[in-house]
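**User:**
My hope is that you can spare some time for a protein that puzzles me. This is the protein in question:
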Amino acid sequence: MTPYSLAFYLDVVTTGTVLGVGPADPPDRVTKALGPGFAENGFGDHSMFRDYGLAEFFWDRVSAGHPWSGHHFTLQVHRLACRDRALVNDALRARYGRFTPRLRFEKLRRLLERRGVSLVEIPEIPVNAPYFRTFWQPDSHVAVSVMATYGEYSTPDHMRVGDVYSIHAPMTAEEVERRRERVGERPTPPPSPTAGPASDAQPVR
């Protein structure tokens, strides 16, 4: 296994799933995979999310009489820097072992490239720039948000430049294209596996 549970992040970015469950899966299937230890938050009858500590899964529905439809999940990686051992639940710890307090983007990127998995930088949304940068995996539709620079009241005090802030899925190709159109950017091809690592960091969600 890749040391310090980096294997977990590699699996998520490569597959777009957490322990085999993805953003479209219903609540019961996600809880079967991640366990019953979660906090549930609802917003009326139309949307809710379950907080499993490191991972959050979100659903919505047309009305109370309709089933929940998966919307997205987010790994709140920045929470690990608070060193709360309860943050990583038993299911994740049993599969991947110990989790370190921070995830360095360049290390993640380098290990992904060894697997032949590329990340491409996409434009940051204005509210997060220049403090964060976003990198996208086109096949799995996973986005990685990285801290790019310090900003008073804009970035967490416990994070370092180059730390991964969060991992989010899905980010569709349409959303990426909208971001590029806003800044007048042409799509750029993914870096070759032999290219050096690109610069660090990305968005807050």
Observations:
- The beta strands are 39-43, 47-51, 55-60, 69-75, 120-122, 132-137, 142-147, 164-169.
- Confidence is low (pLDDT under 50) at residues 190-205.
- Residues 122 and 134 are 6 Å apart (CA to CA).
- The first strand starts at residue 39 and ends at 43.
